[in-house]
Design goal:
Order of helices and strands: HHHHHHHHHHHHHHH
Largest sheet: none
Distance between the termini: 24 Å
Strand content: under 5%
Number of domains: 1
CATH class: Mainly Alpha
Number of helices: 15
Structural class: mainly alpha
CATH architecture: Up-down Bundle
Helix content: over 70%
Shape: globular
Length: about 350
């Protein structure tokens, strides 16, 4: 089973579109998708818990990169929310309710930054994985507190935002898996030693996150399948602001990274901003907004395709943008900070 999950993890760029296609066909023609909504919480836990288990919290207190971390979080929590808000106003301003709900989905992407894939993609590009880990932890903690407030302030006129309920959902999807993951990591290190943790146990967790991502994309698409089939033009409407968001993000971050940071730090910053936490955003959309949640979640589910595809293409451009990597790609110290 683990071998199959590792294969799935290596091929997420194909697996997610396939899962969404299957969800579209299944939910549209084969079965009643409504009961699938009860699977959202357990699937989300499967998706987030492995990511939390492999975090190296100790790296947060090491290194001297405060300027990099501050810049990244200012972009995450000042520039990006403003960007997605105005993209929503510009491209998702139709008269029907669904346009406003898609704008909420785009905004959720903007206020929940730094997924576990931040570390993975930074590693693929030979960037600073220790810095990327800090960005992930800081982004999770700040985002948990900021997301309900930001959503209420920016999107409160579009959809009813229960800040307390939203914060409770974030606690379920962030802090509960975080505590469980850290407890698991501590137990395995104490029982088997750090070397066994790094070489034997730690690599077994990420493939389960990949399974969760694929399943949640399938569920989200299944729940909206009938609406999409009846209104196929909706997909084009959603795609335009997503493409613009990722293009603008990569362009701006590449310029900032090139001008102000080293190659490794710049790469970490790019992925520390661009790799939004779509898993938590999707879970919040489908649990904190009642019956409107599945409409909000449609845009977030589609964002998976662009986020993963764009990261894969950006990796190919990294040597051209920031220059070739000069150091060995893998060391024991780097593997410990993953």
């Amino acid at each position: 089973m683990l071998r199959s999950l590792m294969f799935l993890q290596r091929n997420l760029v194909y697996a997610i579109p396939l899962a969404m296609l299957l969800g579209l066909v299944g939910g549209g023609f084969v079965f009643d998708a409504r009961p699938l909504k009860m699977l959202i919480i357990p699937i989300t836990f499967v998706m987030i818990y492995p990511m939390m288990t492999t975090l190296n919290i100790r790296s947060v207190f090491s290194g001297r990169d405060s300027r990099l971390q501050l810049t990244t979080q200012l972009i995450n929590f000042v520039l990006v929310p403003v960007l997605v808000f105005f993209l929503g106003k510009l491209f998702l301003n139709g008269p029907e309710t669904k346009f406003g709900l898609w704008a909420v989905g785009l905004f959720l992407i903007g206020v929940l930054p730094a997924s576990g894939m931040t570390i993975s993609w930074t590693g693929f590009a030979n960037g600073n994985k220790e810095a990327a880990t800090k960005m992930l932890v800081f982004g999770l903690l700040i985002g948990a507190a900021a997301a309900p407030v930001y959503t209420k302030v920016f999107m409160g006129t579009t959809v009813d935002v229960d800040m307390l309920h939203m914060f409770q959902q974030i606690c379920i999807f962030v802090f509960a898996p975080l505590l469980a993951g850290l407890a698991t990591q501590t137990y395995l290190i104490k029982k088997h030693g750090r070397m066994a943790w790094l070489e034997v146990y730690k690599p077994k967790f990420p493939p389960f996150s990949a399974l969760g991502v694929v399943l949640i994309a399938f569920v989200a698409m299944s729940l909206k399948a009938k609406n999409i089939i009846a209104n196929p033009q909706d997909l084009l409407t959603i795609v335009i602001p997503l493409v613009i968001f990722y293009l603008l993000s990569y362009t701006l971050l590449s310029i900032i990274g090139k001008l102000f940071f080293s190659r490794e730090d710049a790469i970490a910053m790019v992925f520390g901003v661009v790799m939004r936490d779509l898993s938590i955003a999707l879970a919040i959309a489908m649990t904190a907004f009642g019956k409107e949640g599945s409409t909000i979640a449609l845009l977030i589910a589609l964002a998976y395709i662009f986020q993963i595809q764009s990261a894969a293409w950006y990796i190919k451009l990294v040597p051209w943008i920031f220059g070739p990597h000069q150091q060995p790609a893998t060391t024991l110290e780097e593997s410990q900070s993953a």
